[in-house]
Write a structure and sequence with these properties.
alpha/beta, Multidrug-efflux Transporter Regulator, Chain: A, Domain 2, 2 domains, 5-stranded parallel β-sheet, 9 helices
Length: 220
């Protein structure tokens, strides 16, 4: 009896953006955001279609399910109220800051704001982009000079993502105007504030968004 050849199945080393989105449980737009930021490794075919490295997708799945100690303490993004609910939702605020002392200061201060916003913290730009894959905050407050992925690159990616167009962005940085300009500046429409953190100005911006978007006011 002749030997039957053993056929080893070929495992694809790449996948489409839609396949990657299914594996990660996010939208195709989110996959594109993560590709632009470097969270996922990908390339384009001759026809202009993105192909995502499967190992990169699996690595991101592992990262999301097993965050390091510095990220594990970061609160999960708040679940926003559905548009058809009668009760107004609370203001969503995402703070991105790699100095743990300042991050704790943000947390302690913003939690005392009268409108009681839903606060999410991110210790770096990469973690922020992971959160932004499933969460569109009303207000994003970010530093610029950060490790892993600095604020300049993070803002470039965010401003190229249509699903985040409604997010108001404020930069709080120790860099002066000349230093910011020398590194390419920030996208138009983003207010840049100096450190130490100007909490009163940030609270005024937050209150303006609460009024403009008719959000829950709590004790405001």
């Amino acid at each position: 009896m002749p030997d039957i050849p053993v056929v080893t199945p070929t495992i694809k080393t790449f996948c489409t953006t839609r396949e990657a989105a299914t594996m990660l449980g996010v939208s195709v737009g989110t996959v594109q955001l993560w590709v632009e930021s470097g969270l996922l490794n990908a390339w384009k075919t001759a026809g202009g279609h993105r192909r995502v490295m499967r190992d990169s997708v699996l690595g991101l799945l592992h990262k999301e399910s097993g965050l390091g100690a510095s990220q594990a303490a970061v609160p999960a993004p708040p679940v926003l109220a559905a548009p058809d609910e009668q009760r107004p939702r609370r203001l969503g605020v995402l703070v991105v800051e790699d100095d743990p002392v300042l991050l704790r200061l943000y947390e302690a201060t913003i939690k005392k704001w009268p409108m009681a916003p839903e606060l999410t913290l991110a210790p770096n730009g990469l973690t922020a982009l992971l959160k932004l894959g499933s969460y569109s905050p009303d207000l994003l407050i970010t530093d610029l000079n950060m490790s892993q992925l600095d604020g300049f690159e993070m803002l470039r990616v965010i401003r190229s993502t249509p699903s985040l167009d409604a997010t108001t962005i404020v930069v709080v940085s120790g860099l002066d105007a000349a230093m910011i300009a020398s590194r390419g500046g920030v996208p138009p429409g983003i207010e840049v504030l100096p450190k130490p953190i100007p909490f009163e100005r940030l609270k005024a911006i937050a209150m303006s968004l609460v009024n403009e978007r008719r959000l829950e006011r709590r004790g405001a």
